Amino acid sequence: LHLAAENEQRLSELPELCGRCKEPRIVEFIFLLSEKWHLDQSARYQAVELLERFLLKQVEQQREPCQGSSWSCVGEQTVSTSVLRLVSCVQLASKLSLHYSRVTSDTALKFLQSLKYSYTKQELLESELAVLNTLHFHINLPTPLAYVELLLEVLGHNGCPIPAKPLHPVCVQLLDFCYLTRETIYDTLLRIAIENSTPSELQVTKFLRVKEDFMLLAVGIISTGVFILSPGHWEQVVEHLNCITGITPQSILEFSYAVLTGVVGSTTP
């Protein structure tokens, strides 16, 4: 799979601070804004990923200290003082969608004005260009949803017992949930992996690759969706996913458990 190779390439080049921008408040802001502007499902994930990549590049270029506390401040500023960049990322994401409702400058300005910001169209354009230039115009990258949809297609082709049509909306809801509760889910997964409730700093650092693995996320989402819709077919689907991706059934089980634990809100096995 082309996406599998791209995923591996991305994982081999992860910045140290990767994932720090995906704070719940920022993700929720982007999701709500995408919903307000009637964007398709892929746009909201693309906007989150664009914003994070932009901020990571900004930090890298400015050579700011790579400290967790300082990055938390960056996240706060993204909501309070860098809303313009966030809006620009949503605008750009809307233009990348195949079936999109394009966010015009007038729409974006009207929203910013409702938040008491007095930006001009020129400043809005310059903000979009700033994001594009910072990312070297390399913005159309596959999101986790693309991985989910591709795997659903392959499962259908392989005779998966669960039709993709009813499974797709469940997977989208679960993907939203994983974005919004990212830290909780991956904290659970890390504790399962190391069989310890207090991971070391080194273990947390090494776990970054797992947290940023879009293929694992997609497989875990589909597995969880099947378990919710049709538990009787779950083992068969997990076998299919294992054959397609090489991800072990145990890893798929653990990810599904972490997601379901978050959904149910309980840590009881």
Report on this model:
With 269 residues, this protein is an all-alpha fold. It folds into two domains: 17-134, Orthogonal Bundle (Cyclin A, domain 1); 144-264, no CATH class. The chain has 15 helices and no strands. The protein has helices at residues 2-11, 24-36, 41-62, 68-80, 83-96, 105-114, 121-134, 144-157, 164-180, 182-194, 201-206, 208-211, 214-229, 234-245, 249-264. Helix 8 (144-157) crosses helix 13 (214-229) and helix 13 packs antiparallel against helix 14 (234-245). It starts with a helix and ends in a 5-residue tail after the last helix. Residues 77-81 have low confidence and may be disordered.
What keyword list fits this structure?
269 residues, Cyclin A, domain 1, mainly alpha, CNTD1 protein, Cyclin_N, Cyclin-like_sf, 2 domains
Task: Break the fold down into its secondary structure elements and pairings.
Blueprint: H1 2-11, H2 24-36, H3 41-62, H4 68-80, H5 83-96, H6 105-114, H7 121-134, H8 144-157, H9 164-180, H10 182-194, H11 201-206, H12 208-211, H13 214-229, H14 234-245, H15 249-264
